[in-house]
Design goal:
The structure is a homodimer.
Chain A: H1 9-15, H2 21-26, H3 39-47, H4 53-73, H5 77-93, H6 100-107, H7 110-118, E1 140-141, E2 157-166, E3 176-180, E4 201-205, E5 211-217, E6 222-223, H8 229-236, E7 242-243, E8 246-253, E9 256-265, E10 284-285, E11 288-290, H9 293-298, E12 304-308, E13 311-320, E14 323-325
Parallel strand pairs in A: 1-4, 2-13, 2-14, 9-10
Antiparallel strand pairs in A: 2-5, 3-4, 3-8, 6-7, 8-9, 11-13, 12-13
Helix pairs in contact in A: 3-4
Chain lengths: 339, 339
């Protein structure tokens, strides 16, 4: 026991004086005997004291949506209990690098929807795609042409390059290209039980002509994390939990809207049934087999041997993809009421 | 790195062979270029493989409700990001005895609504009220007349007694009365930084005539836990976070529907503005001042001294409340489709 009146100091410090609860209580309607019919309007009223108009709008609509849902399906106590226990597990398995709520949002299609709402397609610009749960700020910075994969990473050698420009056709220099992918086993660095250095992720800046280039491994299709509550949910739903092979890109420059997208491999399984609904036709790319060993040498890329028609060929995969950014514009006002 | 292909054994063991993802993928519609308009129907289709009709219904309606909400408010990426970070925090502050998601559900009125949907009022029976986040199975079992509070617990001495019967007027013997409350400082045992034995909670069985009786302290109004993300939300919403003084009851017997309810003190602040929307008129009770020292002695209750009209009086608080249970009936079929 510690603190005033036995309440822990931490708890007490936070609530004391922040607002005067008796003053607030006076401004509220009398709320007794709330029923399934009148509870929603009362919860909306109690939340109407919020001073931020956008948050007030978001929370008002959320309460209505949640309550309408519960009434509509006639949600029962044991189901509600399972739901909050599930959400607790989702939070508890999360770490700095494992974002299980993002995964949950992903498999419910909410991430893809929010992506579409936030970044509507602009003619000529590269389309966006879902962020996914595995972005990590702690990636290494690379020189142009450097490798995002550590020595000995499983996977087939790949060179990725292209030009970043804007919708006016102007190339963008000093754009930050932040890229992340699975290794050749379909596993992100943070999924391994022991993670040493960041791997299969890196940041590189475009040069004066807007060029980027880096080395990596060819990504493969993989199961999303399914050793947690979201995996259990997918199993119960009888859904598959695979994503097609892809490489994530986050491209940032002070003058442009940040582009969060991913490139999907045409030759991969699940391109048409991605369990997180991220694939767009314009983001499907080809990894071309390349035997230009001069190019490999230039980028210090160790070629692999591939048997084609019974003959051994030395080479690597080449992915060439340009990105088109959108100039930043003042943020549009956000909806704060229904029209 | 461990396990097949470097995937952790735990992850691999769980997904291998559970379902055949390629078989499942074949049964799905082609899902590419999902837009804000067509994503919902596609997510519904992918979930339609679920074999449990109630879960399929719940998840289908949930996806629709979530997506409709996001479209309606035009949910933006940064707001979505704050939301999943918030939910992660709610999970992470939770423990075996602190159920922050229950608290979140409580302050959004969802708990009260689910309570009403699950336990509709039955004429003559005691009304239900919200469970709250502080029920703990680990309470001590008491003899009839025993105390739920440990020696030295702050608070005013109180005796609670009554009869448990059913809607036919038949008394119910061997009903388990599980009760929990704050101490006189408005703090639950599990909220203290150091929790030793369970305190201010206990379980007692009714006798052959349906009587229950126990000693406790008079509960007081208190702030709900607000040192976590739900507290931050309440602060941002400019809401107060007080509950009126109350005592929780969970009454169970194999032949009756479990009653989860609470008794609210008429003399308490916030009876009309309970931040979790739990108060019903029929659950408001009076603690009567009692100077029957024989009764106190019978139950080994240490009286307190109270000054009334300048004169010292020795006595204690007496709460008398009967409960009426509902006979168990076969569970009604749950909704699995819209009519």
């Amino acid at each position: 026991m510690s603190g005033v009146n036995g309440l822990s100091d931490r708890t007490r410090a936070k609530w004391a004086g922040a607002v005067d609860p008796e003053e607030i209580a006076k401004t509220l309607p009398r709320m007794l005997d709330l029923t399934t019919e009148n509870i929603t309007e009362n919860v909306v009223k109690i939340n109407s004291l919020c001073k931020d108009p956008r948050l007030r709008y978001l929370i008002t609509k959320l309460v209505k949506a949640l309550h309408d849902y519960a009434r509509d399906v006639n949600l029962q106590f044991d189901e509600w209990e399972k739901a909050w226990q599930f959400l607790t597990e989702v939070g508890q398995i999360s770490t700095d690098v494992r974002h299980e709520f993002v995964l949950l949002s992903d498999i419910l299609g909410l991430s893809a929807l929010v992506d579409s709402l936030s970044y509507p397609t602009v003619p000529g610009a590269t389309e966006s795609s879902v962020l996914g749960p595995f972005h990590d700020e702690e990636a290494h910075s690379l020189e142009l042409g450097g490798s995002i994969t550590a020595e000995g990473t499983p996977g087939e050698p790949t060179l990725v390059r292209g030009v970043i420009s804007d919708t006016d056709g102007k190339t963008v220099s000093r754009a930050l290209v932040d890229v992340w992918e699975t290794d050749g086993n379909g596993v992100y660095d943070v999924e391994y039980e022991v993670k040493e250095e960041p791997n299969c992720r890196g940041k590189v800046f475009t040069d004066d002509q807007g060029n980027y280039v880096f080395r990596c491994v060819k990504p493969v299709a993989y199961p999303i994390s399914n050793d947690g509550p979201v995996g259990e949910l997918l199993r119960t739903l009888n859904r598959h939990w695979f994503r097609p092979a892809h490489m994530h890109f986050m491209i940032a420059h002070p003058e442009y809207t940040k582009l969060i997208t991913a490139l999907y491999s045409r030759d991969s399984n699940y391109v048409e049934t991605d369990t997180v609904f991220g694939v767009k036709q314009s983001l499907i790319v080809d990894y071309n087999w390349c035997e230009d060993l001069e190019l490999a040498k230039k980028y210090d890329l160790e070629p692999m041997v591939r048997t084609i028609d019974g003959k051994e060929h030395k080479g690597f995969w080449l992915l060439e993809k340009d990105f088109v950014l959108i100039k930043k514009s003042p943020p549009a006002p956000r909806k704060v009421r229904d029209d």
